[in-house]
Design goal:
By secondary structure, the chain is an alpha/beta fold. It is built from 11 helices and 19 strands.
Amino acid sequence: MWKCDYEDSALKIFSSHSCFTHHASLVLRFWQHFRISLYAMLQFKREGIYCTPGNFYIDPWRPVDAAIITHGHSDHARPGMKKYLCHHSTVPVLKARLGSEINVQGIAYNQPLSLNGVKISLHPAGHIIGSAQIRMEYKGRVVVASGDYKTQDDGLSTPFESVRCHEFISESTFGLPIYNWLPVAQQNEQLRNWVLQNQSQGKTSVFVGYSLGKAQRIMKALEGMGQLNVHYSIGKLNRAYESAGILLPAYTELDLREDVKKIDQSIVIVPPSLLDSNIIRKIPNMANALCSGWMQVRGARRWRSADAGFAISDHADWNGLLQAIKNTGAEKIYITHGQTAVFSKYLRELALDAEEVKTEFGTEDETVEQNTNAVAE
């Protein structure tokens, strides 16, 4: 919360009024509400994260008039908004998921825009295609909402960019020190070596990864390793990538309800929803691998009865989170989803002003597995 020149004069008006003496508590409650509505850059409301002076929301989870969207995962990009604003590479993703008729405007990274006196710009978050941090500046105060982010360069997403600010809203999906990712080149090598092993044994390599972001990373890592077959839900989002000018390896779109003998000993990529289904069991000579940051934890792969597990994530790891926050120079940090209690406590131990904020993020991509893997451990 920050102050403006109106505060002192408003206090004088209230204190000089006769009702202040007789109804002090009532006036003070009104004044607290008055300050929140006038002076807060952001409010965390039931609809979502609200920019007060700009009169817009960031990744709202209930229908609002104006929504700025950080990226296309469904816990951040929901239906029912009158107007959407996002990075131009996110536009085809939103249309693929929310419908082609939505009212959406796309802008480039670092392209300034003013909404009701708030200067807005989008900056790369490194999470998935078009993912953006939202920078908001008003009367010299800068707040950045990061959405989800990754500090590793995966070769597909525009790499994460540090943005200096006074207040920073951060996720903490993998906000525990056990989560530290290998370099991307080593992650890709692990995938390729596993495919080679399966090919030598006459097996079909089946990778389980989220349809938006993870699946495309797996495809890129396995380019040239053999025939790539993707579930039709992944193919739908591949077309969104391609319409944004991102080249993906050649692939065949697959409907597993049809004859699957033709994919024997090839490479198959499916979404997590098919992991324990009867459909996936139809794949001949299958060896399956889970690709998720939760595979960093011993026992997670065993609990899901997978043949292999690879710690590949589109979120920042422990060190990535800490470095990203440090680089902002923020004096206030809000932790929105993930390991919120532990991570915010650790930040306070580092003498940072950090607090948890309850949101409805974390219902898609790797965050959906958090509770089930905790049980497994």
